[in-house]
C-alpha cells in the first residue's frame, strides 16, 4: 500500500497528484489516462475537503492511500473535518448556452465520470472516501 | 503555474504552463481579466504546456470566454494535452468554444 499524509491546504494538491503518479509508475503498466483520471478525481475530492470539510475549523490533514490489484486501483482519502459526502448530484447542464453555462458542480461530476465505484463513510474517527478504478484493459 | 503573453496582429496568445487547479486558477482568472480589460479581447489560450486542469481551471476559462465575447471578441483554446482535452470534453465546453491543435491554427482562425 502507498500512503501519504499532507495538510488540508490547497498547496497539498500538487503533492497528491505527484504521489499518484509516483505510485502508479512504481506499480508499472498503468496507462496515462488511468493516472490522469485518478489525479483528477483525487484533486476534486481533496479540493472539496479543503474548501468545505475543514471550513471554519483549524486546518487538519488528509491521508491519501492507494492499493493495487491486477484489475483495479483502490484509492482512499481520509480526513477529519466536517462530513461532505460527494453525492451524485444531477449533472451540470452541458448543453446550456454560454450565458447559462454553470460554473460550478463539475468537481463531483468529474469524480463520477472517471471512477468506477465510489464509497463514503463518516464516523467518529473521520471521513473516508474510497474510489475504485479499473485499470487492466484485459 | 507560469503565464506568458504574446501580442500578435489579430489576437494575442496567453501561454500557460504548469497546472491549473484550485491553488492556481485564481491567478489565471485575474490575469485574463486584466488583459481583457486592457482591450485584449481576442485571445488564444495556449495550453500545450498545461499538464493538469481541474474544474477550478474550467471556471477560469469560462469566465474569460464570457468576458471576451461580451466585449465582441473571442477566446480559443490551443494545444490541449489529452488529459486537459478530456476535462473540456466531459464538461461539454467543446460545444461552446473551439479547440485547435496549436496556436498557429488558432491565430489563423482570427484572421480568416
Describe this structure in words.
The complex is a heterodimer of chains A (138) and B (112). Chain A is of the alpha+beta class. Chain A is built from three helices and five strands. Chain A has a five-stranded antiparallel beta sheet, with helices on one face. In chain A, strand 2 and strand 3 (72-79) form a beta hairpin. In chain A, helix 1 (13-27) packs antiparallel against helix 2. Chain A is globular and about 45 Å long. Chain B is an alpha/beta fold and 112 residues long. Chain B has one domain (2-111): 2-Layer Sandwich (Transcription Regulator spoIIAA). Chain B is built from four helices and five strands, in the order ββαβαβαβα. In chain B, strands 1-2-3-4-5 form a five-stranded mixed beta sheet, sandwiched between helices. The termini of chain B are far apart. At the A-B interface, helix 1, helix 2 and helix 3 of A face helix 2 and helix 3 of B.
Number of self-contained structural domains of chain B: 1
Order of helices and strands of chain B: EEHEHEHEH
The largest beta-sheet of chain A arranges its strands as 1-2-3-5-4
Question: What is the level 1 CATH name of chain B?
Answer: Alpha Beta
Alpha carbon gyration radius of chain A:
15 Å
CATH superfamily of chain B: STAS domain
Question: What is the terminal separation of chain A in angstroms?
Answer: 23 Å
Q: Tell me which CATH architecture of chain B applies here.
A: 2-Layer Sandwich
Q: Largest interface, by Cβ-Cβ below 8 angstroms: which chains and how many residues each? A: A-B, 29 and 24 residues
**Named CATH topology of chain B:** Transcription Regulator spoIIAA
User: Biggest sheet of chain A, open or closed, and with what strands and sense?
Assistant: 5 strands, antiparallel
What number is the mean pLDDT of chain B? 96
Helical element count of chain B? 4
The portion of residues assigned to helices of chain B is 40-55%
